[in-house]
Amino acid sequence: MAFWIASSPHNHIQAQTPKLMRLVLLATLPGVLAQWYFFGWGNLIQIGLAVLFCVLAEITFLAIRDKNIKAQISDYSAVLTGVLIGISIPSFAPWWITAIGSLFAIGVVKQLYGGLGYNIFNPAMAGYVLLLVSFPVQMTSWAPVNDLIAQPVDFLNTLWLIFTGFTWDGFSVEQIRMNIDGITMATPLDTLKTDISRGLTVEESFVNPVFGQFFSHGWEWINLGFLLGGLYLIFKKAIDWRLPVSFLAGMLLFTFIGYVLSPDSSASTMFHWFSGGTMLGAFFIITDPVSGSTTQKGRIIFALLIAFLVVIIRSFGGYPDAIAFAVLLANMAVPLIDQYTRPRTYGHNQGGKS
Amino acid sequence: MESVIERIDKNKFFSFSGGIHPPQQKFLSNDKPIRPLSLPQRLILPVQQHIGNVADILVKPGDKVLKGQPLTAIATPMTVPIHAPTSGVVKEIKKASIAHPSAMAELCIIIEPDGDDKWQPRKINTDYHQLSKADLVAKIAQAGIAGMGGAGFPTNIKVNSQAGVKYLIINAAECEPYITADDLLMREQAPTIADGIEILDHMLEPEYILIGIEDNKPEAIQALKTVTKHLDKVRVCVLPTKYPTGGEKQLISALIGKEVPSGSLPIDLGVIMQNVATVFAIAEAIIHDIPLIRRVVTVTGTALKKPQNVWALLGTQVQHLLDQCGYQHHDQQRIIMGGPMMGFTLPSLQVPVVKITNCILAPTNREISPASKEIECIRCGQCAEVCPSNLLPQELQWSAKAKDYDQLEALNLSDCIDCGACAYVCPSHIPLVQYYRVAKAEIKAKKVQEAKAEKAKLRFEARKKRLEKEKLAREEKQRLAAETRKNKTKSSGATGAVAAALARVKAKKAQQDASENNANAGSSAVNEEPATNSVKSAAAAAIARAKAKRLAAQKTTEKAADISRFQRPNDTNDTSATNATDATYTETVKRPSDNKPEGEKVDSKAAAIARIKAKKAAAEKTNVVSTSEPKAANAPVETQTQEDTHALKDTHAQKNTNTDAKADNKPDAKAAAIARIKAKKAAAAKTNVVSTTEPKAANAPVETQTQEDTHALKDTHAQKNTNTDAKADNKPDAKAAAIARIKAKKAAANKANLDKASSEIEPVSKEPTSEKAVTAKPESQKVDVEKANPTTASSEEKIVSANTVSETKATSSKSAAKTTQRKSTANKTSASKTAASKTTAKVKPATKKATSKTATKSAVTKKASAPSNEKTVTKKAAEKAPTKNTRTATKTVTKKTNAVTKTADQANTKAATKTTAKSAPKTATKAATKTAAKSSAKKTTVKSTVKPATDKNANAETDIQTAAQASEKVTKTKTPATKTSATKTSTTKSTVKKAVTRKRTTTSETKVKAATQKASATRKTSTKAKQADLFDESALASDKNNNAQVKEKTSKTLSAEEKKAKIAEAVKKARAQADAKKQQKADS
């Protein structure tokens, strides 16, 4: 009789990294659907493109690195990166934007650093930042929410727009972004920033229809979608609750400070929470385990740092949203954070030293 | 803040960080009672089943063992014995694969049960309160209980009463999935467990006893609560189920909220933890005297038809367990010993159940899937969340893969308890624990390597220092030697001669001179005393041979330590002797003179005595003869300090004495012979002056002694005291000697001293002797021991005889004489019988000696017993004895010894022929002298070869010197005898001469032997230090014996019958000693 020799422990939790990834993908659904509802097919197409390019890039690099392609592709990490990139990119951005971002994210940020588990930066955010820095115009040209658009764009037109820059009817992205009044529509965050820089108060700025009924028309639903997915992940213990909780708490704290100091130039916490990519960041970006802190205390610090950076950049920076920049900056701080937040080992004195 | 107990009473517990909740699966086996198994075909018992040292095996293949019989011995507290789990036969003791993932082979005792299951006699203890704590600990140790929770730490160490135990925690958590062994044990054996808890309470006296148990065992909790209701200290603490609550550190955290500091033990927190199964085993061991021979094993898993808990005998093969539980084999089947979290897979089913085996798990692949492929770590950090030690498993993993051991240690890898929680939760299926194990092993290996390197460095440096030191010491020694030589030359011509002798080159010349002197002395003696009895002389010669042989053996045997001790006394004795020589001699002479009427007999007796003395003297150093005991006692201290000068003086005095005493001529001749022997032996300067051989030898010893002076002095005194007492006590001493073989050697030395001092000193101090003896034991190697034993026996006998003599003088009763005769005959018979076996042979010589002594006594007493018979017997015995002794002494030397014997025989024959032919004693003497000269020449060569010896050889030299001294003593001893005989008949002279010749021949051989033995001597010397340590303890033990003996002796006193009885006892002792020696040999 031959017996199987294995090292203890012999039983194992059913969780597996691919499953974890699939779970996260699933959790993005509410937000993606909301996005689809408010922004049309654009984002779905972008997600599809991003996933395609990410997987292609992954396969290519795995082939170059002589790795087991099948095993590593099936861990869904590249797919998840693609989805996140697709969600982040403006729905009408040209296809090559997505392609560049995806290839960069997988090829450089992930594979050149050693593949899954070894990348120090969040690939999706790094790709996004590359695009944002390199192609600011395309990357900031978010179309207004569907019901604010004068010319509704259907799937084919969207496809045409993304691949040629013009709809079937010949409209460019710029033209589509114009509302009925001929004013270019931007995202609420963008609008607010512009208004404040023009000397308007937050109150005055909020008259703009982009802010909609609550905080930011459309975006609040998208954020709610991601919040829902995030809560599901927490429920499934796929992500550490400390990260989103401390991130949102940090947002609350820092925006509240700003609001108290200068109410006219500072948006409310709710506005910050439910506009831009806040919820996506809180539950899907900063929870990336690979590039985040691994210690419990470190994660709290990591999330707070991101929140602080986000608020600062949103308030004083040159870009309307700041999740990506904040995450990348915080990624750089991770080794330091981990170094100083090691837990006290059982039986040792504080500081991990015996 | 509320106290720990208050919290516990409120059912509030602390927690430990981390932990997981794997599927319990305990339902498989916790619903059926524990089933006893049928006896297996064979039991395989690994010798080591615990943490600690390997034990010595007490059985051998073919032995029949009873259930519960210990199979290995307890050597240290860290060794745990194993016991036969059932009655049967030990089939073999060999390496067999044990329960280890690698199927590693370890030494196992394999028992084939006979089916009787017959217990060894047991002692049921209903009331353990009557036993002291130490007894309880000893019982636990003897029962072979090692921690049954998994680590196998010797329980006797844990329960060894330590003050300040605040909490005794009984670990009944059993947190591993599947395992229900403790659960079922608690349900079924709760009362016994309660007994065990009470025993531990009695032993450790903790403030509180906490039973930590997980809430998934409601029935066990209930059972425990019921049986411990009457114990106020006990709290049954029901903890939430979480793995690994059963970890020692985790359970302590959960119960008392404190962490065991890294690197320390729970006892530092005042906590002692015992597994509940261990508690059960303790109760069984203490109350029912059942050693740890069985345990509950959970045999479970869905690959079994009937998963169940079973009572498994230790050593039962896993195959047997599985067969009994309906095992079905599957593909990729894993058999796990232990739980699914920390157990290990078995490579085969032939491995035995051991003390720490709590579970055999045979899962199907559906319930526990084979490990899937490891993928990259995504730093999810779940491992860190579940780690009960708060480590960072994924960082450890990276460092382990990178072999960054420094970082691993900085991350406290050593605090990992291998619980497997991290690997359990790892989504990437990284076998983290495996990485840690490997890293731990490598770190350990690295540390061992480093320690070795460090040691090697230290050793190298130490060696360098030592070499330097030795060089300096050598130079200093040479300088001192040169100075002494100068001084001697200045002080006197004789001294100059001595000094010259000291120079080895000179030594040869000196020896030759000495031999010439001896020859002269011998010739003069011959002239004076015409040889009368050829028979006597022959007998004497035989005796002399025997003596010589024995001496040779003894000398060789004697160790440096012994030598040093002896030497001092000797020196002192010598000095005193020299001073009092005349008187002493006269005394000795007087005794013989009284006996004269029976001259022949007396002579033979005297000769016998002389032999014995010689033998003893070899050990003791002749001092006895002179009876200078008191002087010796006083003198030793002084003499030692003055060493050289005294020695010189002594030499002079001795020379004078020799020259003066006509009657002493013979002795001188003997002395000369002895001196030759000594000279040979004393390879160094000692040999120089033949006549002065003794003093020189003394000097040499003194040097050696200086190191051990204090000891030696003390010893001597003690010995003397002992000796004095010892006359009566000799027999007891002999017994003691027999008991302690090693003691025997020392005792021999002591006895000799005693003999010397015997007249004065009183019996109080037997103890010291025994102590010495004890000390000597460890030192002496086997060979030595053997030699020593005969010697001791003989020395004892001598003492007895001496005593008897003195007594006889006083009483001079005819009856005594008769008794002695009877004794002698008895001895003879026994001797002949004993001759068969070597061991017996040893004993016999002793007996013979005793007989001869008795004979001497009788002779002294003027008894008309027929000496001729005795003589012949004695001769034979003597011859045999020495030969045997020599053999025993050194196997290597055996051939030589034989040769010696032959030579001795030849010499005897020659001497006999001569005597018969009535040829002038002078011729005999001449011949003797010639032989002596030749032998001395030979000796010198031997010496020269010996001389080159290095420092180590120095020890050997010392030995030789001692031997020489011994021979000197012998000569002295003989001298009185010779004198007596001289007065009576010239035969004695011839005998003496012959004896001398024989001795010479023997001596030359002895020298060779000595040379060979030097090496062994050196080894012995090295062992001395160790022996010194043992000294105190053994001394205490021996003291008791001695006292008893002294009493006996005093009561015995003079009555002849009592003497006989003593002799008989001595014989018995000697035999016993021989047996003991055999045993020792066997042991060694």
UniProtKB/TrEMBL annotation, chain A:
Subcellular location: Cell inner membrane
E.C. designation(s): 7.-.-.-
Cofactors named for this entry: FMN
Principal location class: membrane
Signal peptide per UniProt: none
First-tier enzyme category under EC: translocase
Coiled coil: none
Annotated transmembrane regions: 20-38, 44-64, 76-97, 117-137, 149-168, 218-235, 242-261, 267-286, 298-316, 322-340
GO CC annotation: plasma membrane
Superkingdom of the source species: Bacteria
Pfam families recorded: NQR2_RnfD_RnfE
Matching InterPro entries: NqrB/RnfD, RnfD_bac
Transmembrane helix is among the record's keywords: yes
GO biological process terms on file: electron transport chain; transmembrane transport
Residues recorded as bearing FMN phosphoryl threonine in the entry: 187
Membrane association type: Multi-pass membrane protein
Keywords for this protein: Cell inner membrane, Cell membrane, Electron transport, Flavoprotein, FMN, Membrane, Phosphoprotein, Translocase, Transmembrane, Transmembrane helix, Transport
HAMAP family assigned to the protein according to its UniProt record, in alphabetical order: RsxD_RnfD (MF_00462)
Family designation: Belongs to the NqrB/RnfD family.
Oligomeric form and interacting partners: The complex is composed of six subunits: RnfA, RnfB, RnfC, RnfD, RnfE and RnfG.
Function text: Part of a membrane-bound complex that couples electron transfer with translocation of ions across the membrane.
Identification of the protein by name: Ion-translocating oxidoreductase complex subunit D
Organism: Thalassotalea litorea
